[in-house]
Write a structure and sequence with these properties.
This protein is of the alpha/beta class and 225 residues long. It has a single domain, classed as Rossmann fold. Helices cover 45% and strands 15% of the residues. The chain is built from 7 helices and 7 strands. It has a 7-stranded parallel beta sheet with strand order 3-2-1-4-5-6-7, with helices on both faces. α1 packs across α7, α2 runs parallel beside α3 and α3 runs parallel beside α5. It is globular.
């Protein structure tokens, strides 16, 4: 089984649908559930209690978990000195704590299964230190640091841990970003074009392939920086 967070929309939904179409057993996680081509559970990743209850339910079903993809995330644009505390807390709770809670709860199931792959999501905004996104960048920088350390801790269990850091992808997270701002970020990528969700899915497929198990502790930028 592959567990995917943020599976009700955006990259999480695209990844879940792609992998389900390839025959993988998917259990998606989202705050809002809907009829889908894959199993979808109602879980708020920012809630440690809900995440642990979800992991116990998966464990009790006796289904081996071989991959965790943490695609759940929220974004907000605020100047560092003007970011509302509630916004900062929300960003850190979902992006960083949510990733950590899921890894803490699902990795033991992967150890039982004999190994696997964890993919966490960051953003190109970390490498570019984009102005106006300080709190968002801080939450995702935490994800990158956590992932590199986790990769070292889980290597002996045959579990790889990597981050994917996309540039602007046409999802709900970009609704409040102007075309000019998108163009500015794309212009700083090595490959200067806006990528699509399916490009990210291609990279995910590569990273969950057992032949890529030696790839760990990395941050992969879609388009390059």
């Amino acid at each position: 089984m592959i567990v995917v967070t943020g599976a009700s929309r955006g990259l999480g939904r695209s990844i879940s649908e792609r992998l389900a179409s390839k025959g993988y057993e998917i259990c998606g996680v989202a705050r809002t559930v809907f009829p889908a081509s894959f199993e979808l559970a109602s879980v708020d990743v920012a809630s440690e209690a809900q995440v642990r209850e979800f992991a116990r339910a998966i464990r009790d079903r006796g289904i081996p978990v071989t991959c965790l993809i943490n695609a759940a995330g929220v974004a907000a644009m605020n100047l560092a000195l003007m970011a509302p505390p509630a916004t900062v807390r929300s960003l850190v709770a979902t992006n960083l704590f949510g990733t950590m809670f899921m890894c803490q709860s699902i990795a033991p199931l992967m150890i039982r299964a004999g190994g696997g792959s964890i993919i966490n999501f960051s953003t190109i905004a970390v490498s570019l230190a984009l102005a106006g996104e300080s709190a968002y960048v801080a939450s995702k920088a935490g994800v990158e640091a956590y992932s590199r350390t986790l990769a070292r801790e889980l290597a002996r269990h045959s579990i790889s841990v990597n981050c994917i850091a996309p540039g602007p992808i046409d999802t709900e997270l970009l609704r409040g970003v102007s075309a000019e701002q998108r163009s500015s970020v794309v212009g700083q990528q090595i490959i200067q074009r806006q990528f699509e969700a399916q490009d990210v899915c291609d990279v995910v497929e590569l990273m969950i392939d057992p032949r890529s198990r030696s790839l760990t502790g990395h941050v992969l930028h879609i388009g390059g920086v």
